[in-house]
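can u pls check wat happens w/ tryptophan
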Amino acid sequence: MAGDRENFSSRLAVIMALAGSAIGLGNIWRFPYMVGKHGGGAFIIIYIVCSLLVSLPVFFSEVVLGKYTRRGALGAVRKVAPKWSWAGYMGIIASFVITSYYSVVGGWSLDYFVRSIFGGFKGLSFEASAGIFASMSASGWETLVCFFVFLLLTAIIVAVGVDKGIGNFSKVMMPLLFLMIVLIVIKSMSLPGAKQGLEYLMKPDFSKLDGPGIAAALGQSFFSLSLGVGCVLTYSSYMKENEKIVPTGLWTALFDTFFALLAGFAVMPAVFSVEGMEPGAGPSLVFETLPVIFSRMGTVVPIIFFFAVLIAALSSSISMYEVVVAWLVDEKHISRKKAVPLVFVAAAVLGAVCAVAPKVFSACDFATSNIFMTLGAFVFSIVVGWIMPEEAVRSTFSNRIYPFVRFLIKWVAPVAIAAIAVTNLL
Ligand code: TRP
């Protein structure tokens, strides 16, 4: 029934959807902090090298698998390398788990977006802001309601379909997201801390870049490009036959890295504009520090910022949700309209547990980003580099670039991933 399978209707839709998946909370709350911690410009250079030599080959492997088989994560791996099917299941489980806990954070951004509309951060002190975050995440019902609404928004976009839902949403929202972040960058750069913030981000300090720093760069690059769980694979299975995958991959990586840098330029000058403020990562940065600083810049700035966070989170959560839906549609022959609510119920249960039990939340995060994603990325490059019929791989690339890409997929990516996994275990 290949003819019935959905497709993205245009190149723009594919690139925007892939960029939407890539650009997310990882760019906003992890990248700027990691850059500062691991030596500024030095980290950025290593990050770009890792992205080009390791992440992009894995990205291309997923694209080849999806495009060639026209199936989701499980169907694709099963078709070309039946013995490795477990990796397909692993990708689906990982995507499901990430959807669940990621949507909890998505719920927080929704909560903060609504609060900012009602001027909830006006004149706030840092202590009061930390209090708001603590009481929001501790009060079960508020976090739960926002989580459900966020998950529901995700489900609705996915239910509308690949092109009309995911494609159209991304085509409209991604440019808007860029616009919003640029506005915040401009505002932020006019603050007194701008110079210090820029130095924190850009000044290369190679002495801070050690083994863990390099491993962190690769891990961040994988997470940011949504690799290793079948997101890129699944979206690629909806590409048209004649889609050129190398430019598509390069554009996605470029947008993703550019957005991460913009987020850094939006966030760090703001943080350094406050005397004695130390930049942190994760929830405390986005939900405690920034509301205070941005609300000092006027009522609109926090609204724009939290709307941007919300859109970035939504465009990522739909990509993970789609991995699970694609499996139900392709392999279990359930219609999209039925698959979406099934996934919703399951993710609502796991996400609700994550929302009220921080230990479960961290365990889900740790298992998926440290184990499942790395293993998945390794398997995808092995399957495409060593097991898939070479003709099928060759036909996806131009003759000029093929030998180089093949070398990266076959040797560089798996060896680098294995080396870093081993270093992390030691
Ligand atoms: N890349 C997204 C971010 O930066 C998150 C994301 C979407 C993701 N799909 C993924 C992470 C798949 C890992 C695997 O926030």
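The pocket of tryptophan is lined by residues 21-22, 24-27, 98, 223-224, 226, 229, 231, 316, 319-320, 373 (CB under 6 Å).
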